[in-house]
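A quick aside before the break. I want you to see a complete sequence-to-structure record at least once, exactly as it would be stored in a machine-readable document. Don't worry about memorizing anything.
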Amino acid sequence: MKSFGLIGYPLEHSFSKFYFENKFFNENIKNVEYLNIECKDLDELVNSKQLIKLDGFNVTIPHKETIINYLDELSPEAQLIGAINCVKNNGGRLVGHNTDYLGFLKSLKPILKPHHESALVLGNGGATKAVIYALKKLNITFEIVSRNSSFDYDDINKKCLEKHRIIINCTPLGSYPKIDSFPNIPYKFLTEKHILYDLVYNPKISRFLFYGKEKNCTVKNGMEMLTIQADLAWKIWKCKK
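That is the input. The structure line, written in tokens, reads:
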């Protein structure tokens, strides 16, 4: 039996296990399993030899960056991005990939219009790195908003939002079960020219997206991105090389 899985913490409401088990059933893929492997401590997990027994695995919060220290090789894109969400066991060598960036790029591109030239990226974790890489591929300028950077949420004003007509939430704010939280931006200055993209997918309409809809913004959650990146991960795992 081939074994795949997801590592991260917490995983109680994760997308991957449900998605892959449905995929295996619907496509009649036999002799495979997909495991949720909750872990706070990567050292402990790696030392247990559990990862090397998997044929491939996904990586989520909070390990997308730190997992790099435990891998044998990175794909060219993963090296440039500096974050990993997919690992293939290639004959005992763990090879890191990033399919998040293509998931984001392919799901954002169809809703872009000529005036969508610049973005505000909320948060600076591993998911942010994939988003930034995709924005560069799309020739969209961006500014990162984080409490640990020189550009803080307090710096977002009307003029800022007139310039940045794409706003991307890369934080977990608003995700289940803490659905009442949301990024602290001045929603009153949003217009129908804005795109609000939330990497959160549960709930389907987060508070962030709800406030955008009230201002007639184009809104999109992270479900399509997740589906695309998962399908790409499966292709990587199936590839013989």
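Two observations worth writing down. The domain at 101-224 is CATH 3.40.50.720 (Rossmann fold). The radius of gyration is 18 Å. We'll return to this after the break.
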